[in-house]
Design a protein that fits this description.
homodimer, Jelly Rolls, Arc Repressor Mutant, subunit A, 2 domains, DNA-binding
DNA sequence: CGGAATGTTGATTATATTCAACTGTTGTGG
DNA sequence: CCACAACAGTTGAATATAATCAACATTCCG
């Protein structure tokens, strides 16, 4: 499955693809290992292997068993639910210092998603066995594991909420608005999409055609400017307005509610 | 939020709503406490309280903090994502010996869903504090907790997969077919819906009108018989066929692929 | 440069919602 | 026990949303 041989042929690691310090660095940077003692990290790292995938390659496929939790050292990948011919729904994008497969690997169940590299990517494959042992021996790690799983649950529920509770126009508006967050001003603000528009469309569960039309409409209404991949947010307030325009009814009636 | 005073007024429990043996029985029946030692159960039970909800009452509301994990001793409830005026998406139905709120309570985050009793229901409210302590002291419990969270993740991903990858007709067909499972025969088989058609519609993310039309079509095509709430599955094979009719394409085309 | 991937646009169609009216069922209080 | 209200379900017509099909433009790379 993974490019272990390919990894071994790389000049960036030593002869057998196992550079302990590199692997320990990758492992210890994961949220799962936050505040976990060095000895635990070293132990787990001693079992993990590095692999490389080039842009477009599959990191994992729906239906197969994962050998363990897979972490990304650098690069970018997408977790997708495949659909018919060319269609897909992106569940998550994951980048450096993120991991996937915790639930699947721990329960030893077939992987539910395809994982595809969107750029040249370096992976660390952390076998389940040492993770399960660590979970029983290291309270901090167990806490991290639980927090990761619980957080994932909340994210997925929010995902379902958004994908049925709001129109695609609303989801897109909310997303664009969130990209502008860094600078608090309500002035024009150039943002750049982290992935292609087609991939983003899949992220929102729509087609690239629909995405194109939605963006054009936002442009025509003066909320954004766009030339090619370059997007500028012109009216952040109105954009945020669209994001919750129709709906609100129950949310308002209920009091302050959350902010997602 | 919970009807503790109401619970205390019930004749079924003792004066202050705390019957230790009853509570221990409820707690120990939960998947979370499977194989957990009696002393742990007793400890946690000593912190938990019983509450009652009548049909239609809210057990929890979106946006509020849950006091802990909530378990159902008897009765039935639905976890719903509220939408505008009357609309809702049911995430799960939960019945006796099931619980909810693990992720929300452990992370101390606002509840994402409304929880509504569909029948008179008895609840056990298990505060977070003792659960967190137990998670650090009892490996079996920690394992159960992790398994519960991980399982919930997989279910939600499957849920998203179904709700975007298949049409509502497919989801309904798959559901009806699953109801017939008990007897393996392909003959006519009477099934009964566990909840109202309206509630089921919300479970599938469609309106009751659409549900009605879909069922009518299945009836007209001779796949089921239906008079009121009484449904009989007439052609299970064809029903299963509808459930996966269009799709499959990429799954086949994908063959071995992978990244080696 | 040339080809593949990405993005755009229009026309048409599928799917399910919304609105509205109406029927059947159930549970409750007079 | 019946009347009545509340809920559950059905049906049709009009509508909204986004997918699909098809053609073309643009950008990115090797």
């Amino acid at each position: 499955m993974f490019q272990q041989t390919y990894a071994n042929a790389q000049g960036t690691t030593n002869g057998n693809g196992r550079d302990p310090r590199l692997i320990e660095g990758i492992v210890s940077s994961l949220p799962l290992f936050r505040d976990v003692g060095r000895s635990s990290v070293v132990l787990v790292a001693s079992y993990t292997r590095i692999a490389h995938c080039r842009r477009g390659e599959f990191i994992a496929q729906q239906g197969e068993r994962l050998p363990g939790v897979i972490a990304i050292a650098y690069g970018l990948a997408k977790l997708v639910l495949p659909r018919r011919k060319g269609e897909e729904k992106v569940l998550r994008f994951i980048g450096a210092n993120e991991s996937f497969g915790e639930a699947t690997a721990l329960l030893d169940r077939p992987c539910q998603v395809d994982v595809v590299a969107l750029a040249d990517t370096m992976l660390a494959v952390i076998p389940v066995r040492p993770l399960k042992q660590l979970q029983e021996r290291d309270v901090t790690f167990a806490n991290n594991l639980i927090a990761t799983l619980a957080g994932g649950l909340l994210l997925l529920v929010a995902e379902i909420d958004a994908s049925i509770g709001r129109s695609s126009a609303q989801r897109l508006a909310a997303y664009l608005e969130s990209l502008a967050l860094p600078d608090a001003g309500s002035d024009a603000c150039a943002v750049q999409l982290p992935v292609t528009k087609t991939a983003l469309a899949a992220r929102f569960g729509i087609t690239k055609e629909t995405m194109s039309r939605l963006l054009r409409e936002l442009k025509e209404r003066g909320l954004i400017a766009m030339t090619g991949a370059n997007i500028t947010i012109l009216d952040r307030a109105r954009l945020a307005g669209i994001a919750r325009e129709p709906a609100a009814a129950t949310t308002i009636a209920r009091g302050q509610a959350a902010c997602i």
